[in-house]
User: Fold this.
Amino acid sequence: MDERLIIAGFGGQGVMAMGQLLTYSGMIEGKNVSWLPSYGPEMRGGTANCNVTISSEPVGSPVVIESTTAVVLNLPSLDKFESSVVPGGNLMINSSLIEKKAERDDINVYYIPANEIANEIGNTRIANMVMLGAYIEITGAIKIESVYEAFGKVFGETKAHLLPINKDALKRGAEVVREQMKVNA
Amino acid sequence: MTKVLMKGNEAVGAAAIAAGCHYFFGYPITPQSEVPEYMSRELPKVGGAYVQAESEVAAINMVYGAAGSGARVMTSSSSPGIALKQEGISYCAGAELPCVIVDMMRGGPGLGTIQPAQGDYFLATRGGGNGDYRLIVLAPADVQELVDLVMEGFDLADLYRTPVMILGDGMIGQMMEPVEFRYQPRTDLPDKDWATRGKGKGKQRNVINSLYLQAEELEKHNHKLQAKYAKIRENEKKVEEYNVEGADLVITAYGTTSRIAKTAITKLEKEGYKVGMIRPISLYPFPNEAFEKIGENCKGVLTVEMSTGQMIDDVKISLQGRIPTYFHGRSGGMVPEPEEIVEKVKEILGGDR
Assistant:
């Protein structure tokens, strides 16, 4: 396996945390992983993205230029990264904040109302976890149990009480994308 | 020990503490500020001291003082900050003080940018400070190697009584990868009987200095330093080689750039090209033998750097005109893409595969 992701959105949408959870989960499963953030002078409110590689082979370049999956949480990220997806790859669009549709027809496109689902569960800040749940359902790249284990490592014990609501978000993300997978298949 | 996922900069701090470094003097600068941040949080827990100096110049002189007392000590910065430290580094080299200096390079010259670059190769390997001195310069390509080289760096510094520079870039500082800490200190490290720790009764007074007003004495001191550098060249070269034998073309790159080159090589192999790689891990001493071994049938050596061409000078010196050399570089914080390297190789080799 060779999963190369670009996860992008506004600073504060949890793109870095989502990437770290995924990377940690891959490590727990004994895979080769790397996480590379964009870093710049304009962190808060500006655009943020990270590159995640999960592979059975040693990771070469940690920079993802051709992604197997792009997760976009806002419109500028869709405009910037739709072209990065390899043919047959996945483009996951946060349809709560992005009205525009994908232009390409040689990739699998998923529309996930991540913020709406997060709000239904009761915390808008877990929209990133909805996307993560959907990603795992689509690709099977890692096991969801690994994310539970990684959660404590990434967020620390002080956030342990938030695990149940995050589990909900992961589950809802997986559910919402299951229907779309049938259509894409 | 189990693996943990760590950011390169934090891993530098953790590796240093694991290697017994309890003193850190620095000044924040992107993209390495997580190093001082980590040290300020963690050093008090081990009874160490973290000082945020008023400037980089002050920080390196604090390193001079701590090293003079025999302690393991580190400082870190990024390119413009390292430039400011050059005077102090030359003094440390002259006074033969062991210390570890981390440079997470960013784009330059001048204040430049905060994005990754490799424009400090000359500064690191030629000495940005004055006088005939060298540093041991080690260039890690991933976070595990970064940890290993920081730890080994402290041993080499003590063994040779010399400053050691870890030359990384913004990318390796900012990225996260799994690491484990497995420090096995060398058993052949000499006692620091030269350190200034208080004279005690009847003992000889130690002086740490780089000032020699008598020319004869200073020349003698220079010969001593040169003998040490010769020993370092003899014993401490580090290099990774990949499919060099029988390669039509050899790519050479160090640090994170070597990983991009490796991805390019994987692509080229799929198309039937025979491309090898030499990755210098020690930049000083430079692993010239790896280049001397390249066969006459090799059509060229392509140096790839995140600079406008610095390491290529050492490549040319090592090859002595035997094989044509080529260069591909990006600078100013731009990171080369594997596809650029693939195209360059095809341009050099034409249709030969």
